[in-house]
Design goal:
By secondary structure, this protein is α/β, with parallel strands linked by helices. Helix content is about 35%, strand content about 15%. The strands form 8 sheets. Strands 9-14-13-12-10-11 form a 6-stranded mixed sheet, sandwiched between helices. The protein binds beta-D-glucopyranose (BGC).
Length: about 800
């Protein structure tokens, strides 16, 4: 066992500082004279994206082939941490085979709005479910001896200006909703590393937020790994290191290292803190080495992992509708397969999570392995929304001949991408028109949906059955056919609410944040917590999913922390049921959701089988965060214990009395009436300020004003420099054209939302922070003096780089 402390005591200040930023885009640095090992970090989260050629953090350049598992939004629908663990284990094996010691995932941000462009990568609107499933994945990855890296810590639920936006959130919501999933993961799965997010949280960048990184993560939760910035997300490296963020990625060519050295020399950073960060990080780098050395050459287990991906996808499929028991399809059923997605599947989202899959199944090919009579395939629609009458007609002709139409539909590529939030929840209109026509040609239409984010379904009456596959990874086609044919009895349940329409969602009036601020005015009322409290009808509730069999619940018994009941499979086929435990406080003095998920279990039962099931309540079951005394408290009183097949389908109910911690209500009930009632669609400034406990920070930028280094490039529309305004127009033009085409231009999206400082953080040290600041001067109309400073900065950088070498 290497003694890191001793090793560090022999290093020079420069050597120590150098270890806290990357060597290149993916790897950490070494100190050659000590032969320090390094580690490669790679995305994540639903497969390995190991780039060996030109690296980028947006999934643009090639990566080595790896298994593409279902995305997090899909896996959460399995409600089965062991499925996440199985996937994690496979991902870890592939990571090792490709020399990766840190897998950048899982992504754990809350689905605050259905419009967040990255929702496909996130698990749920509920922190408990998210935390438990993510813990499964982390355990799986780390069971191989390497490190998972849950991300993005924290309150990062919006893509727009993600590197400069400021999440304004009250303390209670922060703890109960946005940090709770991370808390579960850290405490239960002990990740060896964690990624801080791009955004600010209440005015302070997440990567230099002492409260998040030190007070909560380390002191309260006991995290003892290292924290890495999101790529290019560092703001002030010295402050980051001081507050508990260890590694800055990717490389800044020595610029950040020099900042650290300078800070120690001039007393701005205590050398002991620097040493501590280096030690904490080195410890993990050493810890993962045996796994990386020992297992090289074990291979990718491609076939085995493909099967695992199919199993995970099958367990996560949600049957939303099944009129007249149209499904499962009878053996030999004559089916028409219609829809572009059946041939060219959508199985993952765009951005840094893109996996170059080892193989990709499609329905038209794999249907041959199933006992169905495929009469033919028609594309039916253009993916980009263009109407093609001929394609439609051909699809209609085929539909007429079939017993059942399998219509593959969903969101196109541009709708689900890192860097771009959606503006609506509709699927392309040409698909909806075709569906309506198909339903007239054939009354037995099954809609098979591919979409990693919630969608509206005003067209649902046009299909008898709806099978929602979310984004099911490279083996999704076979998994869906397994469900359609009944080889697998569907058991997935929604990990998010599907609202009737976009305007119904609680964050609708606040998302995305208009200027700097992303104001979490809806507070605790995210997802079902809102719909239920405010009595807003939904299309499909949280936790909903049908089966080919039926389950009966009976005999609820509460014994201390143990909640037991009897579950019986009362139908004709074997299947699994996700039983959910919710808790609701009666006569609570502190405002709350009507009920909250506090436990769940997935139980497989053969037809006719009966099992006694127990769910154990944990330390989080009754607690709430009291912002008055900054502590978790329990209110004394009666609590309903509810066992349901979904959040809206409660089958068993009892109540218990719980002793409390007797804290008092800390807020002004009158000022916060909207939170008492849950009617949070139009929270006034006064009510939000009351929730925050202070004035709302002024988040406006001055459109006649000057820009600063933390302003995003898309703010150049009001720059003083005509050249900068022109650059803005060009950038916007490219962005708009790519959106029209339906193919996301990830580079442009990233640059568009990137602050000027990002130029320094993302150019391998060619541009320094000093130079970025001079660029901002130019943008602000001081072209010549800015240019002079920029050129001067360039030469100073070259000199400094030579010196460092
Ligand atoms: C993403 C991270 C990712 C990183 C490296 C960033 O743009 O936000 O999730 O891990 O790039 O690719």
């Amino acid at each position: 066992m290497v003694n890191c402390k001793e090793l560090i005591s022999k290093m020079t200040l420069e050597e120590k500082a150098s270890l806290l930023s990357g060597k290149d885009i993916w790897e950490t640095k070494t100190v050659e004279r000590f032969e320090l090992p390094t580690v490669v970090l790679s995305d994540g989260p639903h497969g390995v994206r190991r780039q060996v050629g030109a690296g980028d953090h947006l999934g643009l350049n090639d990566s080595l082939p790896a298994t593409c598992f279902p995305t997090a939004a899909t896996i959460a629908n399995s409600w089965d941490p062991s499925i996440a663990e199985m996937i994690g284990k496979c991902i870890g094996e592939e990571a090792i085979a490709q020399g990766v010691g840190v897998v950048l995932g899982p992504s754990m941000n809350m689905k605050r709005s259905p419009l967040c462009g990255r929702n496909f990568e996130y698990y749920s609107e509920d922190p408990y479910l998210c935390g438990k499933i993510a813990a499964g994945e982390v355990k799986g990855i780390q069971s191989n001896g390497i490190s998972a890296c849950p991300k993005h810590y924290a309150v990062n639920s919006q893509e727009l200006r993600r590197m400069s936006s400021d999440s304004i959130i009250d303390e209670r919501t922060l703890r109960e909703i946005y940090l709770a999933a991370f808390e579960i993961v850290v405490k239960e799965a002990k990740p060896r590393s964690l990624m801080s997010s791009y955004n600010r949280v209440n005015g302070i960048y997440a990567s230099e937020n002492e409260k998040l990184l030190q007070n909560i993560l380390r002191d309260e939760w006991g995290f003892d790994g290292f924290v890495v910035t999101d790529w290019g997300g560092s703001n002030n490296h010295v402050e980051s290191v001081r507050t508990g963020n260890h590694l800055e990625m990717p490389t800044t060519g020595g610029d950040s290292d020099r900042e650290l050295v300078e800070a120690v020399r001039n007393g701005a950073l205590d050398e002991e803190i620097l040493d501590k960060r280096v030690e904490e990080m080195l410890k993990i780098i050493y810890e993962v080495q045996p796994a990386l050395k020992g297992n090289k050459g074990q291979g990718m287990k491609e076939e085995e992992h493909h099967k695992a991906a199919q199993k995970a996808a099958a367990e996560s499929i949600v049957l939303l509708k099944n009129e007249e028991k149209l499904l499962p399809l009878a053996k030999g059923c004559k089916v028409a397969v219609i829809g572009d997605f059946a041939k060219t599947p959508r199985y993952q989202g765009a951005g840094s999570s893109i996996v170059n899959c080892t193989k990709l199944d499609n329905t038209v090919d794999v249907i041959k392995d199933f006992d169905l009579n495929m009469l033919g395939f028609e594309q039916g629609y253009e993916r980009n929304g263009k109407v093609d009458a001929q394609m439609q007609q051909a699809a209609m002709e085929l539909a007429k001949q079939a017993e059942v139409v399998l219509f593959y539909m969903g969101l196109d590529e541009i709708s689900e991408t890192e860097g771009l939030d959606r503006t609506h929840m509709a699927i392309p209109h040409n698909q909806i028109t075709l569906l309506s026509r198909l339903s007239k040609a054939n009354k037995n239409v099954v809609a098979v949906i591919s979409a990693g984010s919630a969608i509206e379904m005003p067209w649902i009456q046009n299909c008898k059955a709806v099978v929602h596959g979310y984004l099911g990874g490279q083996a999704q086609a076979g998994a869906i056919l397994e469900v359609l044919t009944g080889q697998v009895c569907p058991s997935g349940k929604l990990s998010e609410t599907l609202p009737v329409k976009c305007e119904d969602n609680p964050a609708h009036n606040y998302f995305p944040g208009k200027y700097y601020n992303a104001e979490y005015r809806e507070g605790l009322f995210i997802g079902y917590r809102y719909y239920e409290k405010a009595e807003v009808p939904v299309l499909f509730p949280f936790g909903f999913g049908l089966s080919y069999t039926t389950f009966a619940y009976s005999d609820l018994e509460i014994n201390g922390q143990e909640v037991s009941f009897t579950l019986a499979n009362t139908g004709e086929v074997d299947g699994a049921e996700v039983a959910q435990l919710y808790i609701g406080a009666r006569n609570s003095k502190v405002y709350r959701a009507v009920k909250e998920l506090k436990g769940f279990t997935k139980v497989f039962l053969k037809s006719g089988e009966i099992k006694r099931v127990t769910i154990t309540l944990d330390d989080k079951a009754f607690r709430y965060f009291n912002a008055g005394n900054n502590a978790w408290e329990i209110e004394e009183g009666d609590y309903d214990i509810l066992i349901g097949a979904s959040s809206a389908d409660i089958r068993l109910k009892d109540n218990i009395h719980v002793d409390g911690t007797s804290a008092t209500v800390w807020y002004d009930k009158e000022a916060m009436e909207v939170y008492e009632s849950g009617k949070i669609q139009n929270v006034s400034d006064e009510a939000f300020a009351a929730l925050l406990g202070h004035d709302i920070p002024d988040g406006h930028w001055n459109e006649n004003g000057i820009l600063n280094v933390n302003d995003a490039l898309c703010q150049m529309y009001y720059a003083k420099s005509g050249l900068a305004r022109f650059a803005y127009k060009v950038l916007t033009g490219i962005k708009n054209r790519s959106e029209e085409k339906g193919v996301p231009n990830l580079n442009v999206l990233f640059i568009y939302n990137m602050p000027f400082r990002g130029i320094a953080k993302m150019t391998n040290g060619i541009i320094t922070m000093e130079m970025a600041n001079q660029m901002v001067r130019m943008v602000n109309g001081h072209f010549w003096s800015g240019m002079k400073g920029f050129v001067g900065g360039y030469f100073r950088n070259r000199k400094a780089q030579k010196r460092t070498k």
